[in-house]
Amino acid sequence: MASVKEVLPPVLDSTSQPPPLFDGTTRLYTNYQCPFAQRVWITRNYKGLQDKIKLVPIDLANRPAWYKEKVYPENKVYIVAIQVFFL
Ligand SMILES: N[C@@H](CCC(=O)N[C@@H](CS)C(=O)NCC(=O)O)C(=O)O
Question: CA distances (Å), 80 to each of 1, 29, 50, 87, in order?
Fold first, then answer.
């Protein structure tokens, strides 16, 4: 299997702006230390989906308010946010 080098994005905390939420990108909201999220992260990498599913690491000790308000009301990781458009 070919290895893919990936620069890990910086962890987002309460001072961070949200990514563009409705730009059609699929995102894995994660935490690098979370074992639940690590399983999804490993599967994403194993399937070679690094370009299709972007990592958005969240600081669980200092979570951005927008994460709970706009992404995941349970305020936990992980979640894979997929956008579906109905035309
Ligand atoms: N039910 C979730 C659990 C995920 C979970 O508990 N994640 C932890 C990090 S490992 C978390 O977000 N904790 C923050 C909190 O509970 O407020 C699952 O199975 O995926």
Answer: 25, 6, 13, 22
Ligand 1 contact via 34 beta carbon (within 6 Å): yes
Considering the domain delimited by 26-81, tell me its CATH architecture: 3-Layer(aba) Sandwich (3.40)
Could you tell me the distance, in angstroms and rounded to a whole number, from the CA of residue 35 to the centre of ligand 1?
Answer: 9
Reduced to 3 states (helix: H, G, I; strand: E, B; else coil), residue 15 is coil
- Cβ neighbors of 39 (< 8 A, separation 6 or more) are none
76 Cβ closer than 6 Å to some ligand 1 atom: yes
Per-residue pLDDT tens over the stretch 11-69: 999 999 999 988 889 999 999 999 999 999 999 999 999 999 999 999 999 999 999 99
Would you say the CB of residue 55 lies under 6 angstroms from ligand 1? no
Amino acid sitting at position 9: P
